[in-house]
Amino acid sequence: MIGILIVLIFSSSLAYSSQLPPLQFKKLQLPQQTVGPDSTAFDLKGNGPYTSVADGRVLKYQGPNIGFIDFATTSPLRTKEECDGTNDPNLLITRGRPLGVGFYYKTGDLYITDINYGLLSVGSNGGLATQLVSGIDGVPFAFADALDVDQIGGVIYFIDSGLILRTRIRRFWLKGPKANSTEIFANLTGHPDNIKRTILGDYCVAVNIVKQQQTPTIFALAQRVDVLGNVVLSLNLTAQYPNSFSEKKMTTSTEQQNGSVGTTAGMATASSSRTTPAPAMAPAEKPKNEDIPVLGEETPENERFVITKA
Length: 310
What we know:
The protein contains 3 helices and 25 strands. By secondary structure, it is mostly beta strands.
Protein backbone atom coordinates (compact mmCIF):
# COMPACT_ATOMS: atom_id res chain seq x y z
CA MET A 1 0.00 0.00 0.00
CA ILE A 2 1.42 3.37 -1.02
CA GLY A 3 0.62 6.71 0.52
CA ILE A 4 0.56 9.85 -1.59
CA LEU A 5 0.44 13.50 -0.63
CA ILE A 6 -1.27 15.47 -3.41
CA VAL A 7 -0.45 19.16 -3.77
CA LEU A 8 -3.06 21.49 -5.26
CA ILE A 9 -1.58 24.78 -6.49
CA PHE A 10 -2.95 28.02 -7.85
CA SER A 11 -1.51 31.51 -8.06
CA SER A 12 -1.86 33.94 -5.16
CA SER A 13 -2.95 36.64 -7.63
CA LEU A 14 -6.03 34.55 -8.36
CA ALA A 15 -6.98 34.11 -4.71
CA TYR A 16 -9.08 37.27 -4.91
CA SER A 17 -10.91 36.26 -8.07
CA SER A 18 -14.55 35.24 -7.89
CA GLN A 19 -13.80 32.41 -10.31
CA LEU A 20 -11.17 29.85 -9.43
CA PRO A 21 -8.81 28.62 -12.17
CA PRO A 22 -8.49 24.95 -13.12
CA LEU A 23 -6.96 23.04 -10.23
CA GLN A 24 -3.46 21.64 -10.50
CA PHE A 25 -2.19 18.70 -8.47
CA LYS A 26 1.29 17.63 -7.53
CA LYS A 27 1.87 14.25 -5.90
CA LEU A 28 4.39 13.85 -3.09
CA GLN A 29 5.28 10.21 -2.52
CA LEU A 30 5.14 9.08 1.12
CA PRO A 31 7.57 6.41 2.39
CA GLN A 32 6.85 2.81 1.44
CA GLN A 33 3.82 1.29 3.23
CA THR A 34 2.99 4.62 4.91
CA VAL A 35 -0.72 5.44 4.97
CA GLY A 36 -3.18 7.78 6.62
CA PRO A 37 -1.72 11.30 6.24
CA ASP A 38 -4.17 13.47 8.16
CA SER A 39 -2.95 17.06 8.43
CA THR A 40 -0.19 19.30 7.09
CA ALA A 41 1.82 22.27 8.31
CA PHE A 42 4.71 24.48 7.18
CA ASP A 43 7.28 26.06 9.46
CA LEU A 44 8.08 29.77 9.51
CA LYS A 45 10.70 29.38 6.75
CA GLY A 46 8.20 27.63 4.49
CA ASN A 47 9.87 24.24 4.90
CA GLY A 48 7.70 21.17 4.57
CA PRO A 49 5.03 20.09 4.33
CA TYR A 50 5.04 18.28 7.65
CA THR A 51 2.33 15.63 7.86
CA SER A 52 1.00 13.19 10.46
CA VAL A 53 0.60 9.55 9.40
CA ALA A 54 -1.11 6.44 10.76
CA ASP A 55 1.96 4.64 12.10
CA GLY A 56 2.63 7.27 14.77
CA ARG A 57 5.07 9.58 12.98
CA VAL A 58 5.11 13.17 11.86
CA LEU A 59 7.05 13.35 8.59
CA LYS A 60 8.84 16.29 6.97
CA TYR A 61 9.20 16.74 3.23
CA GLN A 62 12.80 17.56 2.21
CA GLY A 63 12.34 18.07 -1.50
CA PRO A 64 12.11 15.73 -4.50
CA ASN A 65 15.63 14.33 -4.11
CA ILE A 66 15.14 13.23 -0.51
CA GLY A 67 11.40 12.96 -0.03
CA PHE A 68 9.91 12.56 3.45
CA ILE A 69 12.00 11.95 6.55
CA ASP A 70 11.04 11.18 10.14
CA PHE A 71 10.54 14.36 12.16
CA ALA A 72 8.64 13.54 15.35
CA THR A 73 6.77 10.84 17.26
CA THR A 74 4.19 11.11 20.03
CA SER A 75 4.63 7.88 22.01
CA PRO A 76 7.67 6.85 24.09
CA LEU A 77 6.64 3.23 23.44
CA ARG A 78 7.03 3.48 19.69
CA THR A 79 9.92 1.79 17.87
CA LYS A 80 10.74 2.04 14.17
CA GLU A 81 11.16 -1.71 13.82
CA GLU A 82 7.70 -2.44 15.17
CA CYS A 83 5.70 0.48 13.86
CA ASP A 84 7.05 1.98 10.63
CA GLY A 85 4.49 1.40 7.90
CA THR A 86 2.02 -0.38 10.16
CA ASN A 87 -1.72 0.13 10.16
CA ASP A 88 -2.38 -2.29 13.03
CA PRO A 89 -5.01 -0.68 15.30
CA ASN A 90 -3.66 -2.59 18.31
CA LEU A 91 -0.34 -0.80 17.91
CA LEU A 92 -1.80 2.59 17.09
CA ILE A 93 -3.57 2.80 20.44
CA THR A 94 -0.35 2.66 22.49
CA ARG A 95 2.28 3.69 19.92
CA GLY A 96 0.61 6.96 19.05
CA ARG A 97 -1.62 8.29 16.30
CA PRO A 98 -0.89 11.98 15.59
CA LEU A 99 -3.61 13.90 13.76
CA GLY A 100 -3.57 17.69 13.88
CA VAL A 101 -0.28 19.56 13.42
CA GLY A 102 0.49 23.28 13.51
CA PHE A 103 3.46 25.56 14.19
CA TYR A 104 3.69 28.42 16.67
CA TYR A 105 6.05 30.62 14.70
CA LYS A 106 7.24 32.68 17.66
CA THR A 107 9.00 29.67 19.21
CA GLY A 108 9.29 27.36 16.21
CA ASP A 109 7.53 24.60 18.15
CA LEU A 110 5.22 22.17 16.38
CA TYR A 111 2.01 21.35 18.23
CA ILE A 112 0.41 17.96 17.70
CA THR A 113 -2.87 16.36 18.69
CA ASP A 114 -2.83 12.60 19.26
CA ILE A 115 -5.91 10.42 19.76
CA ASN A 116 -4.37 8.85 22.88
CA TYR A 117 -1.85 11.36 24.19
CA GLY A 118 -3.83 14.58 23.84
CA LEU A 119 -1.96 17.78 23.02
CA LEU A 120 1.82 17.67 22.62
CA SER A 121 4.66 19.85 21.35
CA VAL A 122 8.08 19.28 19.84
CA GLY A 123 10.90 21.71 19.08
CA SER A 124 12.21 22.70 15.68
CA ASN A 125 14.67 19.78 15.69
CA GLY A 126 11.92 17.20 16.10
CA GLY A 127 12.15 14.01 18.14
CA LEU A 128 9.81 12.69 20.83
CA ALA A 129 7.05 15.20 21.49
CA THR A 130 6.31 16.38 25.03
CA GLN A 131 2.80 15.86 26.35
CA LEU A 132 1.21 19.15 27.45
CA VAL A 133 -2.27 18.07 28.46
CA SER A 134 -4.17 14.80 28.07
CA GLY A 135 -7.48 15.67 29.71
CA ILE A 136 -9.37 17.77 32.22
CA ASP A 137 -9.70 16.94 35.95
CA GLY A 138 -8.39 13.44 35.43
CA VAL A 139 -10.75 12.72 32.52
CA PRO A 140 -8.82 12.15 29.27
CA PHE A 141 -9.86 13.86 26.08
CA ALA A 142 -12.15 11.58 24.13
CA PHE A 143 -10.49 12.17 20.76
CA ALA A 144 -8.05 15.05 20.27
CA ASP A 145 -8.32 15.73 16.56
CA ALA A 146 -7.49 18.78 14.44
CA LEU A 147 -5.83 21.95 15.72
CA ASP A 148 -4.98 25.48 14.67
CA VAL A 149 -2.64 28.01 16.28
CA ASP A 150 -3.53 31.65 16.86
CA GLN A 151 -0.14 33.24 16.12
CA ILE A 152 -1.09 36.61 17.61
CA GLY A 153 -2.93 35.52 20.74
CA GLY A 154 -0.71 32.54 21.52
CA VAL A 155 -3.66 30.15 21.77
CA ILE A 156 -4.21 26.67 20.35
CA TYR A 157 -7.71 25.62 19.32
CA PHE A 158 -8.29 21.90 18.92
CA ILE A 159 -11.18 19.52 18.35
CA ASP A 160 -12.22 17.09 21.11
CA SER A 161 -14.68 14.72 19.44
CA GLY A 162 -15.29 11.49 21.33
CA LEU A 163 -18.06 8.93 21.24
CA ILE A 164 -20.32 10.92 23.59
CA LEU A 165 -19.05 14.48 24.01
CA ARG A 166 -17.92 15.02 20.44
CA THR A 167 -19.16 18.50 19.73
CA ARG A 168 -16.52 20.63 21.42
CA ILE A 169 -13.72 22.96 20.47
CA ARG A 170 -11.14 23.43 23.24
CA ARG A 171 -8.73 26.29 23.77
CA PHE A 172 -5.18 25.84 25.16
CA TRP A 173 -3.30 28.95 26.30
CA LEU A 174 0.40 29.20 25.45
CA LYS A 175 1.07 32.43 27.35
CA GLY A 176 -0.44 34.92 29.79
CA PRO A 177 -2.12 34.27 33.15
CA LYS A 178 -3.87 31.17 31.76
CA ALA A 179 -0.71 29.68 30.22
CA ASN A 180 -0.67 25.86 30.02
CA SER A 181 -4.37 25.59 30.83
CA THR A 182 -7.27 24.48 28.68
CA GLU A 183 -10.95 25.30 28.55
CA ILE A 184 -14.01 24.74 26.38
CA PHE A 185 -14.14 27.35 23.63
CA ALA A 186 -17.34 26.32 21.85
CA ASN A 187 -20.04 23.66 21.91
CA LEU A 188 -21.40 22.90 18.46
CA THR A 189 -24.58 21.22 17.31
CA GLY A 190 -22.76 18.55 15.32
CA HIS A 191 -19.51 16.65 15.23
CA PRO A 192 -16.60 18.99 14.34
CA ASP A 193 -13.62 17.71 12.41
CA ASN A 194 -10.84 20.17 11.64
CA ILE A 195 -10.63 23.89 12.22
CA LYS A 196 -8.94 26.81 10.47
CA ARG A 197 -8.43 30.42 11.54
CA THR A 198 -9.43 33.04 8.96
CA ILE A 199 -7.74 36.34 8.19
CA LEU A 200 -10.56 38.04 10.11
CA GLY A 201 -9.59 36.25 13.32
CA ASP A 202 -12.56 33.89 13.55
CA TYR A 203 -12.66 30.19 12.68
CA CYS A 204 -14.08 27.92 10.01
CA VAL A 205 -15.04 24.44 11.16
CA ALA A 206 -16.27 21.40 9.24
CA VAL A 207 -19.20 19.91 11.15
CA ASN A 208 -21.22 16.75 10.54
CA ILE A 209 -24.89 16.62 11.54
CA VAL A 210 -26.42 13.16 11.95
CA LYS A 211 -30.19 12.93 11.64
CA GLN A 212 -31.31 10.11 13.94
CA GLN A 213 -33.62 7.77 12.08
CA GLN A 214 -33.77 4.10 11.12
CA THR A 215 -31.07 4.72 8.54
CA PRO A 216 -29.02 7.66 9.88
CA THR A 217 -28.41 10.45 7.41
CA ILE A 218 -25.31 12.62 7.63
CA PHE A 219 -25.39 16.29 6.67
CA ALA A 220 -22.16 18.11 5.80
CA LEU A 221 -22.16 21.54 7.41
CA ALA A 222 -19.62 24.37 7.40
CA GLN A 223 -19.78 26.74 10.37
CA ARG A 224 -18.05 30.00 11.16
CA VAL A 225 -17.18 30.61 14.83
CA ASP A 226 -16.19 34.04 16.15
CA VAL A 227 -13.51 34.78 18.75
CA LEU A 228 -16.07 34.39 21.55
CA GLY A 229 -17.01 30.88 20.48
CA ASN A 230 -20.35 31.87 18.94
CA VAL A 231 -21.51 30.30 15.69
CA VAL A 232 -22.09 33.27 13.38
CA LEU A 233 -22.67 31.45 10.10
CA SER A 234 -23.80 27.97 9.06
CA LEU A 235 -23.84 26.65 5.53
CA ASN A 236 -25.41 23.31 4.62
CA LEU A 237 -23.23 21.54 2.05
CA THR A 238 -25.39 18.45 1.65
CA ALA A 239 -26.04 19.23 -2.02
CA GLN A 240 -22.30 19.33 -2.74
CA TYR A 241 -21.39 16.46 -0.39
CA PRO A 242 -24.42 14.16 0.02
CA ASN A 243 -24.37 11.63 2.88
CA SER A 244 -20.69 12.15 3.61
CA PHE A 245 -18.40 13.22 6.39
CA SER A 246 -16.93 16.69 5.93
CA GLU A 247 -13.30 16.46 6.96
CA LYS A 248 -11.82 19.94 6.75
CA LYS A 249 -13.01 23.41 5.79
CA MET A 250 -10.65 25.79 4.01
CA THR A 251 -11.47 29.16 2.48
CA THR A 252 -9.84 31.38 -0.08
CA SER A 253 -8.94 34.95 0.82
CA THR A 254 -11.89 36.25 -1.21
CA GLU A 255 -14.34 34.03 0.64
CA GLN A 256 -12.96 35.13 4.00
CA GLN A 257 -13.28 38.81 3.13
CA ASN A 258 -16.83 38.30 1.95
CA GLY A 259 -17.70 36.52 5.18
CA SER A 260 -18.70 33.35 3.36
CA VAL A 261 -17.43 29.81 3.30
CA GLY A 262 -16.16 27.80 0.37
CA THR A 263 -17.59 24.80 -1.42
CA THR A 264 -15.82 22.54 -3.88
CA ALA A 265 -12.48 24.36 -3.73
CA GLY A 266 -12.63 24.65 0.02
CA MET A 267 -13.72 21.33 1.50
CA ALA A 268 -12.87 17.66 1.21
CA THR A 269 -15.23 14.91 2.29
CA ALA A 270 -14.96 11.37 3.55
CA SER A 271 -16.97 8.20 3.79
CA SER A 272 -19.68 8.16 6.45
CA SER A 273 -18.42 4.79 7.69
CA ARG A 274 -15.76 6.42 9.87
CA THR A 275 -15.52 5.18 13.45
CA THR A 276 -14.08 7.15 16.35
CA PRO A 277 -11.29 5.59 18.45
CA ALA A 278 -11.83 5.05 22.16
CA PRO A 279 -10.57 7.43 24.87
CA ALA A 280 -6.88 7.45 25.75
CA MET A 281 -5.23 4.08 26.37
CA ALA A 282 -8.54 2.19 26.14
CA PRO A 283 -8.82 -1.13 24.24
CA ALA A 284 -8.20 -0.59 20.56
CA GLU A 285 -10.93 0.30 18.16
CA LYS A 286 -10.75 0.86 14.44
CA PRO A 287 -8.58 3.94 13.74
CA LYS A 288 -9.59 6.87 11.63
CA ASN A 289 -10.73 5.93 8.13
CA GLU A 290 -7.61 6.00 5.95
CA ASP A 291 -9.51 6.87 2.78
CA ILE A 292 -10.28 10.38 4.00
CA PRO A 293 -8.96 13.15 1.73
CA VAL A 294 -8.05 16.26 3.65
CA LEU A 295 -7.30 19.79 2.56
CA GLY A 296 -4.24 21.04 4.36
CA GLU A 297 -2.76 24.33 5.43
CA GLU A 298 -2.33 27.42 3.26
CA THR A 299 1.28 28.34 2.55
CA PRO A 300 2.56 31.87 1.92
CA GLU A 301 2.42 31.00 -1.79
CA ASN A 302 -1.28 30.09 -1.50
CA GLU A 303 -0.70 26.43 -2.29
CA ARG A 304 -3.45 23.99 -1.37
CA PHE A 305 -2.59 20.50 -0.18
CA VAL A 306 -4.89 17.52 -0.42
CA ILE A 307 -3.84 14.43 1.50
CA THR A 308 -5.07 11.08 0.28
CA LYS A 309 -4.08 7.45 -0.09
CA ALA A 310 -3.34 5.66 -3.33
